[in-house]
Amino acid sequence: MSAEQMSIGEMLAATVPMARTLNLQFLETTPDRAVVALPDQGEYHNHVGGPHAGAMFTLGETASGTIVLAAFGEQLARAVPLAVRAEIAYRKLAMGAVTATATLGRPVADVVAELDAGERPEFPVSIEIRRADGAVTGEMTVVWTLRPNG
Q1: Confidence check: pLDDT of 96 > 60
Q2: For the chain, which domains are there?
């Protein structure tokens, strides 16, 4: 299967070893929203039997990268998306499978306009991590940039 035929989730699973390691599931991928799930897997539990904080961080960061690729995929020939910084807050005990939902914090057109102007735009991606009962177990922000090639 060529890169053009792969979904963003398939591409990430093929190129990002950590996404494969955690068996992340890509449920929804649009420029407006990305939803990625971390199945309940004992080998990634913490000391209280829920998903390890590092696995939840990876889930959230992966969801943020998924929406970045969906929103800015057309820019990949001239810029590389890079995470600049991230912050996570663990709100409630997460048990079982968890799902991360990512949304962009700036309009795509504004970010692309900065890139067009020769700048290196930064933009936040907000992520909510929820357990199966819908409770928010974590909130995360990843700030991304599009680094121009060359």
Answers
A1: yes
A2: 8-148 (3.10.129.10)
